[in-house]
Amino acid sequence: YFVDAVIVKELINDPTERERLLGKNFDGKGLYEYEQEDYWYQYSKESMEQLLKLRLDSIGIEKIKVVNPNYVWDDSVANAEKLSNEIITASIDHDKVLVTLNLYGKHWVGIALDKSKAEISYMDSEQNKIPTLLKKQLAERLSTFLMLHGVSVNLREIELELQKYNNCGPEVIENFIFYLTDGNRLSQEEAIVLHSLLLENS
Questions:
Q1: In this structure, what are the phi and psi dihedrals at residue 176, rounded to the nearest 5 degrees?
Q2: Among 58, 76, 163, 186, which has the minimal tally of Cβ within 10 Å of its Cβ?
Q3: How far apart are CA 44 and CA 161, in angstroms?
Q4: How far apart are CA 121 and CA 113, in angstroms?
Q5: pTM summary value
Q6: Nearest to 53 by CA among 200, 198, 201
Q7: Spatial separation of the C-alpha atoms in residues 18 and 133, rounded to whole Å
Q8: Residues paired with residue 123 on neighbouring β-strands, in sequence order
Q9: Which residues 6+ apart lie within 8 Å of 150 measured at CB?
């Protein structure tokens, strides 16, 4: 299901559609929380994976593996090992892997692996640095894996627009679109509308 950006802009300016899509009368299967008169949303683990796949489909991006770990990042070596292994396993049959990761039960971030470039990209809409242990483990373990193919890993932290609201979930999804399309993503306000429409029509 594809929604043109022009339609999104029109809907966000229509009071009735805006209210329906942004929470008050939106029966979005319990995937959103609406707070105050603003764009304040918390995406659950299940909705992150579902909406990311729908968003990729909406612009015709295929052959990308989405990894959504069933745990919260807590600066433990065990989690670092599990995450690295999940990314490695996913990359065996896929050149690009996208990971939605929840930090400390409070904040969503994105990690992307481009195997052909031997590059890991870290995306945080709060503009925080990647946690030290996460950076160390990803670089070491994925370098070891990719060195079997004769390359070493480069880890970069992408400079992103700072999130305006409590909207890290939507921002992870749109920042992946930014990453995959060289900057072609919706605004923070438009993103919520499009995600709502994609979910309604899934």
A1: -65, -40
A2: 76
A3: 22
A4: 6
A5: 0.80
A6: 198
A7: 42
A8: 110
A9: none
